[in-house]
Amino acid sequence: MEPGNLEKPFKVTIVGDAGVGKSSYIKKQFSPDFNRDYLQTAGYEVFRWSRNMSAGRVNLELWDVSGSQSKLRDRQSWLRSSDAAIIMVDIAQPITFENALRWYEELLLANPSGLPVVVCTWKPTSKDKMLDVDPETLLWLGETEDVQFYDVASDISRFDQPLLCIVRKLMNDPDASFWFPYTLTDDDLEIHD
């Protein structure tokens, strides 16, 4: 039986400080190869992501928002109307954990009715540079019911878990699971300054 199709794409905004691995994380969703080439995102980029799920096909727009010091007004317009968000932090840079709260507050400022959020470590690094990650470091997580934490940097094989968590919340189906691999085409990428 062919699963149903959820036509409306959900907007998932991916934010975090510059250099934490937002673009790399998104590109990993489309390719099994890990690309270490780094080009800083200017403004934002939008990637179309579709996946067959056990509960139907889900369509997402992954908004890769620049972590550089862009104007708050610009960022607010990019964050507005998000259905969900991922806040990326770098397991080797403690300041990115501290700044996660600022990113969360910016997301809520742009989306006052709230949204599901995942805080995620991504950027794989050498073991000697890794922090001992404890979700308790992000104390504000305990005060929010819509925020989940994933330490993917320590176990890169779990790279799909943050998006799966978000898709489950967006589909309102805690048991939804991915069916088949997916690929990126040239038509799936938009770049905005």
TrEMBL record:
Listed InterPro entries: P-loop_NTPase, Ran_GTPase, Small_GTPase
Cell wall biogenesis/degradation keyword on record: no
Gene Ontology cellular-component terms listed: cytoplasm; nucleus
Keywords from the UniProt entry: GTP-binding, Nucleotide-binding, Protein transport, Transport
Any single GO BP term: protein import into nucleus
The keyword Protein transport is annotated on this UniProt entry: yes
Coiled-coil stretches: none
MF (Gene Ontology): GTP binding; GTPase activity
SUPFAM superfamilies membership: P-loop containing nucleoside triphosphate hydrolases
Pfam families for the chain: Ras
Name assigned to this protein: GTP-binding nuclear protein gsp1/Ran
Source species of the chain: Penicillium cosmopolitanum
